[in-house]
Amino acid sequence: MRALILVDIQNDFLPGGALAVPEGDRVIAVANALMPRFPLVVATQDWHPPDHGSFADNHPGRAPGEVITLAGLQQVLWPTHCVQGTRGAEFAGALAREPVAQIFVKGVDPEVDSYSGFFDNGRRRSTGLGEYLQAHGVREAVVLGLATDYCVKFTALDALSLGLQTTLVEDGSRGVELQPGDVARALAEVRAAGGAVRRSADLLD
Ligand code: VGL
Ligand code: ZN
């Protein structure tokens, strides 16, 4: 069984959003085109409480992009984004919703961020995604969404660590690129861990 994992295709990561990913809106059409080809489609949703420790606003004197230690882990500070119940946290309006069988929220614990759709950054808690895929007999994961160099990368790496055959869809993902080259490095990391990086056209034929 093969599953498509849509990572954080939410308003705050689209152009004009609080943590806008350049060309983030371009992943929507790719996601919509791929969904009907998969027997199982799931989505992750960045879903932070207002007091989340990854928000620069919650650390007086700190600015987005700075790195702090949060609960013993290195943490990049971000603009306030994807706050639970806000429009920014909702899925992109143009994203097809009907094919999505299950949604997994992440980043709920104020003390630890969660880039991967499977586990928090300390790997202390599961979101339930891994157990869900296992229960549905999934052996192969195809991952796309936002952002390539954060949540898409870590979701793909965790899928690999759980023994899933994993493909990252390059044109179905866009990156933040805090440092130039971050997207290319993310793709290289996924390949080095045993994952494939492919274009959506190759998955459609
Ligand atoms: C993400 C930074 C903070 C992502 C989420 O979805 O890639 N990046 N929260
Ligand atoms: Zn976040």
From TrEMBL:
<protein>
    <recommendedName>
        <fullName>nicotinamidase</fullName>
        <ecNumber>3.5.1.19</ecNumber>
    </recommendedName>
</protein>
<dbReference type="Pfam" id="PF00857">
    <property type="entry name" value="Isochorismatase"/>
</dbReference>
<keyword id="KW-0378">Hydrolase</keyword>
<dbReference type="GO" id="GO:0008936">
    <property type="term" value="F:nicotinamidase activity"/>
</dbReference>
<keyword id="KW-0662">Pyridine nucleotide biosynthesis</keyword>
<feature type="domain" description="Isochorismatase-like">
    <location>
        <begin position="3"/>
        <end position="201"/>
    </location>
</feature>
<dbReference type="InterPro" id="IPR052347">
    <property type="entry name" value="Isochorismatase_Nicotinamidase"/>
</dbReference>
<comment type="pathway">
    <text>Cofactor biosynthesis; nicotinate biosynthesis; nicotinate from nicotinamide: step 1/1.</text>
</comment>
<keyword id="KW-0479">Metal-binding</keyword>
<dbReference type="InterPro" id="IPR000868">
    <property type="entry name" value="Isochorismatase-like_dom"/>
</dbReference>
<dbReference type="InterPro" id="IPR036380">
    <property type="entry name" value="Isochorismatase-like_sf"/>
</dbReference>
<comment type="similarity">
    <text>Belongs to the isochorismatase family.</text>
</comment>
